[in-house]
Amino acid sequence: MNFVDQVKITVQAGDGGDGSISFRHEKFIAKGGPDGGDGGDGGDIIFEASANQDTLANFRYKKIIKAENGDRGSFNNRHGKRGKDQIILVPIGTLIYNQDQLLVDLVQNHQREIIAKGGQGGFGNAHFISSTRQAPKFAEKGLKGQKLELKLELKMIADVGLIGLPNVGKSSLISRISQARPKIADYSFTTLKPSLGMLDFRGQAILIADIPGLIAGASSGKGLGFDFLRHIERTKILVHVIDISSSDPFEDYLTIRHELETYQIDLKIKPEIIVLNKVDLLSQTEVERITNDFKKKLKIKTSILKISTQSLFGLDDLKDLIYREVNKVNQLQPKNEIDQETVKVINFDHLSSKISRKFVVSKIADNKFKVIGQDLENLVNKTDFNNSEAINRLHNLLIKRGLVNELKKQGAKDDCLVYLADHKIDFLF
Ligand SMILES: Nc1nc2c(ncn2[C@@H]2O[C@H](COP(=O)(O)OP(=O)(O)OP(=O)(O)O)[C@@H](O)[C@H]2O)c(=O)[nH]1
Ligand SMILES: [Mg+2]
Predict the structure, then answer these.
(1) Which of 194, 248, 392, 401 is most deeply buried (CB count within 10 A of its CB)?
(2) 6-154: which CATH number, 3.40.50.1000, 3.40.50.2000, 2.70.210.12, 3.20.20.150?
(3) Tell me: the pLDDT tens digits for 364-405?
(4) Ligand 1 mean position to 255 CA, how many Å?
């Protein structure tokens, strides 16, 4: 399993379908009333957190993801079909950014968020019939769907983080207590990327992350650890694996603790289980001596377990302790509290469904103006500039919305040039 924890992708919501221009054909009636239907809206881009996903690796090959376009309207007042939404599954713990702004942090299984909105469908000509306009020969164009460049970042939300120096037996441990089968070898930095394993204990699924070995200086970028410290931030408890046969197990312990503290992981609130591994390599008396010495030096009250992933000694006790510690944290931190936190970071300004009619006009040169405002931009984008009736309608709307007045106020003269959305408009008052 490849582990990718940061990717850039482009998402493109569906375009709205164009409205249709059509007139009823009835027997004996030369020209019936307008019956062009509206275009369908484009599909949205929706992200969903899923426990079945554990990496962002798929996105390395799939850089552009699109939702379906809405269909065009057609005769007989037929609405175009709405484009299908595109639902993108990502692992729990995926953060979604647009231009360095956090849009959402998907922390719960099945949590869904709309990230890019499909374009609105355009009105068909039947929509524009009025007492003064019996036979409108124009329709609106559909709006383009939102296109966003996103950065996805995975900060795993595992229950347990396995930490420790390289080569102490973290991967051996996860392969003994879960279904995960990472590479195990007798050298440092065998594990290059975090991987996940599921410990199934007393009917509960406990997610464990095997994190690459940390070394002194990891918090300032040494070794491989730095990139992965952020995963540790989000685990509920830590299992700190130490090689009991090392020359100074307690010093090893302090090295890792120091790195975590420097990275500002609040260790006071993160329970830790200390595991002295490889006890099969030493005599029982040596094991006891080192363990007692360790306990003496360790002034805080932390659980210490002796294990061997080789002989399987102590693994049942460890599973039991992990189970109890994880559930302690779960009780202190009910799920809905996490939800509250999440809601705070969501920033969905770009999806606001209430489109403001405010606009800003700025003079960029003599008789040239730039206009910014979502409502006016939408009106322009819906206009078919090959159709004089559609252009007339746009002109009237721009007068109604107050644009002409504002232009005049700023000294615009007849035949001024107006930049609006992606269009340049020669404006005649
Ligand atoms: N004798 C003995 N050897 C062990 C035990 N646990 C792990 N090992 C050995 O220690 C070496 C390192 O094990 P890994 O599980 O790859 O260690 P790691 O902590 O994941 O190492 P990195 O991924 O490099 O950080 C391997 O040769 C294992 O076979 C144990 O309980 N007893
Ligand atoms: Mg490893």
Answers:
(1) 194
(2) 2.70.210.12
(3) 999 999 999 989 999 999 999 999 999 999 999 999 999 999
(4) 19
